[in-house]
Amino acid sequence: MKDVSIPIESRRNARPRSMASAVHRFVESGAAAWGISNRSMLMLLVVPFLVAVTGVATALMGKETYKWFTGEDRIAESFQALLYALALVLCVVIVTRLWREGRRGIALLYVIVAVGLTFMVGEEVSWGQRFFGWTTPESFLEANKQGETNLHNIHGVGYAFKWLQLVVGAYGTLLPLLLLRVNVQPRMRQFLAMVVPPVTLVPYFMMLFIWRMYRNLFEAPRQFYFVVSEYNEVMELILASGFFMFMLYQLRKLNEARRSQPSITRHKTAA
User: Fold this and answer.
1) What DSSP state is assigned to residue 136?
2) 126: left (phi over 0), alpha (psi -120 to 50) or beta
């Protein structure tokens, strides 16, 4: 009887090839969903990892370089505010578009998202205090650890924000992955597609989710406390990028649906 077993070396070589093939299929399907090229899709997937590595690299370059990237009103915080502001603009456009199409229920959900994004922008710039330079009210001055007009730096409130970040990270990580495994009705899937980030954005939320799990449950090593605590700004920048990408994705989907609408109408007329 002939030995038809697959050689061990061949099986080992097959694993990397199958993994590469799976990654390629994932990139292709993501590119098709976004309506972009495979190269653009690959860049979109790599962005959160590049931001995370940049944070580590600046930390290794020394404290001053790290503060230049993660400090107050520096690179990470400035881009957070900008990305949340851009996401807010896109969200308002989405609300307007959905409302005009008669999809009032989902439009109201996006109104809530718009309110949340407004809050995030306001908090990042201390509600304009950093631009206009007004004096912090005494009530905030005593309670706020940075002496500014914002809520997330108030003692006790900041702790709640950390757990809220964990919930947001879990939402954007677990639900998209769950939808890949669970069969739901087409109508429900259409609704969920509007309120759950696509699976291609999971890295943007997963990093914050893992980071918050670590920071909320474990103490940072004393000798690295500054580096670890400031790294949260890097994770928040990735999250802000994720929100912007999510709003951009939804707007692209609405535009795609609008472009396909006339052809459907013409087809019905011809029939």
Assistant:
1) P
2) left
Asked if residue 44 lies in contact with residue 245, where contact means CB atoms within 8 angstroms, the answer is yes
Show the tokens assigned to 57. Answer: 């690299």
Expressed in angstroms, the distance from the first to the final Cα of the chain is 64
Q: What is the mean pLDDT of residues 235-262?
A: 91
Helical segments of 144-224, H only:
157-181, 186-195, 202-217
- Which of 31, 15, 17, 51 has the alpha carbon at shortest distance from 208? 51
Rounded CA separation 254/251 (Å): 5
Residues 6+ apart with CB under 8 A from 172: 197, 201, 202, 204, 205, 206, 209, 242, 246
Q: Tens digit of pLDDT for each residue in 140-171?
A: 556 556 656 556 556 666 678 889 999 999 99
Specify the pLDDT at position 56: 95
Cα–Cα dist 165/95, whole Å: 24
Round to whole Å and give the CA distance between 260 and 17.
37
Tens of pLDDT, residue by residue over 3-57, are 555 555 555 555 667 777 888 888 999 999 999 999 999 999 999 999 999 999 9
* H/E stretch holding 36: none
Phi first, then psi, for residue 152 (nearest 5°) are -70, -10
In angstroms, what CA-CA distances link 44 with 41, 48, 162, 177, 202? 5, 8, 26, 18, 11
